[in-house]
């Protein structure tokens, strides 16, 4: 059985953040987010919301362009993975000492 | 409450024009924005300072007041009434505050421009501050998932401690950070699990290691050893001629594997042999005899 997914209407998201729908479309075209289309309406999944809001802030507040956002996303993922590795390495060190 | 040098915060001279202020703010905001420095309280503090400095210096009216009264901001009203020129009484040197930024704006800012100014100035929504908390546990606390109530910032939060969570692992509780401003969403709560070393069980991921002492006779002739595992004691057969340092694996007797219900790591038992002390004359005699037999058989 398919799990029900919570969705947010793109239009509503844009109104609430005071941004153009074209920006969300651009993020989608850039492969940074996924837009879900249900009965001709565009939606964002709830799990993407936080990251999409972050990209809105980067673009509108910090004037980072889409290429920059893409790079930041990748680097943040690497930081996250390295932080997890560091924790594991610290635990290993603790085990060996 | 200390005077805050907003020019110093934005790393610009006092003669900087609007474009230079904007440029400096953007440059530093890109460096310290919480989105770009996750889980870094220092960066978050610095970002708040930048916002405040930008709020004052990018607004001509605020900047004029700040430049006019500077460190005498406390007496601004009196100076205005008395027609004083506070610059004349300004002493040299200023100090940048390293504290007083617990909220979105410092006490200094709110005293100078009023609380309304700080709320008015934030036209856009801001997500609330992320909070970080530490939860100190012992190994046995993470053998099974359990619920616990934590008090963070005066609020009780009921969380589930997941079985098998590792030392230093962080879990995020969405929306349980500080409230957002201007109807912005709440921040998140990040809980770091700190698991103290166990005096008996050494952990490596989901595997557990222990050392068990057996006496010389059990090691030589075989027998049984009572071994404490994470879920109680088990009796193990010790084979004859067990060597010190021999490692035995007890499958599935280790830690629960994180997020894999019903899956457990292994328990590794290392045997250490305790040699007898305070030998009686009879024992010495017998050991001497054994020694002779042993060297005779080797030759």
Description:
The complex is a heterodimer of chains A (97) and B (299). Helices cover 65% and strands 11% of the residues of chain A. With 97 residues, chain A is mainly alpha-helical. Chain A has one domain: Multidrug-efflux Transporter Regulator, Chain: A, Domain 2, CATH 1.10.1660. In chain A, a hairpin with a 2-residue loop joins strand 2 and strand 3. The radius of gyration of chain A is 18 Å and the shape is elongated. Chain B is an alpha+beta fold and 299 residues long. Chain B folds into 3 domains: 116 residues, DnaJ domain (Helix Hairpins, Orthogonal Bundle); 65 residues, HSP40/DNAj peptide-binding domain, CATH 2.60.260; 97 residues, Urease metallochaperone UreE, N-terminal domain (HSP40/DNAj peptide-binding domain, Sandwich), CATH 2.60.260.20. Chain B contains 8 helices and 11 strands. In chain B, helix 2 packs antiparallel against helix 3. Classes of the chains: A mainly alpha (97), B alpha+beta (299).
For this entry, give a set of tags.
heterodimer; A: mainly alpha; Multidrug-efflux Transporter Regulator, Chain: A, Domain 2; 3-stranded antiparallel beta sheet; 3 strands; elongated; B: 299 residues; Helix Hairpins; HSP40/DNAj peptide-binding domain; 4-stranded mixed beta sheet; 8 helices; 23% strand
What is the strand and helix layout of this fold?
The complex is a heterodimer of chains A (97) and B (299).
Chain A: E1 7-9, H1 10-17, H2 21-29, E2 36-38, E3 41-45, H3 46-60, H4 66-96
Antiparallel strand pairs in A: 1-3, 2-3
Chain B: H1 6-10, H2 18-32, H3 41-57, H4 60-69, H5 76-82, H6 107-121, E1 131-137, E2 146-152, E3 155-161, E4 170-173, E5 189-195, E6 202-204, E7 207-215, H7 216-221, E8 223-229, E9 232-238, E10 247-250, E11 267-274, H8 281-298
Parallel strand pairs in B: 1-5, 7-11
Antiparallel strand pairs in B: 2-3, 4-5, 6-7, 8-9, 10-11
Cα radius of gyration of chain A in angstroms:
18 Å
Given as residue ranges, the uncertain stretches of chain A (5+ residues, pLDDT < 50) are none
- The tally of domains of chain A stands at 1
Question: How do the SSEs of chain B run, as a string of H and E?
Answer: HHHHHHEEEEEEEHEEEEH
* Count of DSSP-assigned helices of chain A: 4
Strand order of the largest sheet of chain A: 1-3-2
- CATH topology category name of chain A: Multidrug-efflux Transporter Regulator, Chain: A, Domain 2
Euclidean distance between termini CA atoms of chain A? 49 Å
Main sheet overview of chain B: 4 strands, mixed
Distance between the termini of chain B: 89 Å
Q: Which homologous superfamily in CATH is the superfamily of the largest domain in chain B? A: DnaJ domain
Low-pLDDT regions of chain B: 84-102
Give the overall average pLDDT of chain B: 81
Count of beta strands of chain A? 3
CATH topology type of the largest domain in chain B: Helix Hairpins
Strand order of the largest sheet of chain B: 6-7-11-10
CATH class of the largest domain in chain B: Mainly Alpha
CATH class of chain A: Mainly Alpha
How is the main sheet of chain A built? 3 strands, antiparallel
Strand content of chain A: 5-15%
Multimerization state:
heterodimer
């Amino acid at each position: 059985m398919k799990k029900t997914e919570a969705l947010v209407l793109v239009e509503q998201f844009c109104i609430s953040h005071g941004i153009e729908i074209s920006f969300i479309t651009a993020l989608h075209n850039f492969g940074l987010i996924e837009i879900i289309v249900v009965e001709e309406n565009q939606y964002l999944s709830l799990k993407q919301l936080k990251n999409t809001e972050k990209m809105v802030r980067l673009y509108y507040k910090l004037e980072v362009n889409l290429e920059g956002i893409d790079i930041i996303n990748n680097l943040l993922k690497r930081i996250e993975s390295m932080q997890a590795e560091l924790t594991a390495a610290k635990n290993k060190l603790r085990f060996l000492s | 409450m200390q005077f805050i040098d907003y020019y110093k915060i934005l790393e610009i001279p006092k003669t900087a024009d609007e474009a230079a202020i904007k440029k400096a703010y953007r440059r530093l905001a890109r460096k310290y924005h919480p989105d770009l420095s996750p889980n870094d309280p220092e960066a978050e503090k610095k970002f708040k300072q930048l916002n405040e400095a930008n709020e004052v210096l990018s607004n001509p009216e605020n900047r004029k007041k700040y430049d006019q009264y500077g460190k005498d901001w406390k007496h601004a009203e009196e100076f205005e009434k008395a027609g004083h020129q506070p610059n004349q009484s300004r002493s040299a040197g200023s100090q940048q505050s390293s504290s007083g930024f617990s909220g979105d704006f410092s006490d200094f800012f709110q005293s100078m421009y009023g609380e309304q100014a700080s709320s008015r100035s934030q036209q856009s929504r801001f997500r609330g501050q992320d909070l970080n908390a530490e939860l100190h546990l012992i190994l046995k606390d993470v053998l099974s998932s359990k619920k616990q109530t934590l008090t963070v910032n005066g609020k009780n939060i009921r969380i589930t401690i997941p079985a098998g969570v590792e030392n230093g692992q962080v879990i995020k509780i969405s929306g349980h950070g500080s409230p957002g401003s201007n109807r912005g969403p709440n921040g998140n709560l990040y809980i770091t699990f700190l698991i103290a070393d166990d005096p008996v069980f050494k952990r490596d991921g989901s595997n557990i290691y222990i050392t068990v002492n057996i006496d010389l006779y059990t090691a030589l002739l075989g027998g049984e050893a009572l071994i404490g595992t994470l879920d109680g004691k088990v009796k193990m057969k010790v084979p004859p001629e067990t060597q010190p340092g021999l490692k035995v694996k007890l499958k599935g007797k280790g830690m629960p594997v994180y997020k894999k219900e019903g899956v457990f790591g292994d328990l590794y038992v290392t045997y250490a042999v305790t040699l007898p002390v305070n030998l009686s004359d009879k024992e010495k005699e017998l050991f001497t005899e054994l020694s002779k037999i042993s060297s005779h058989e080797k030759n």
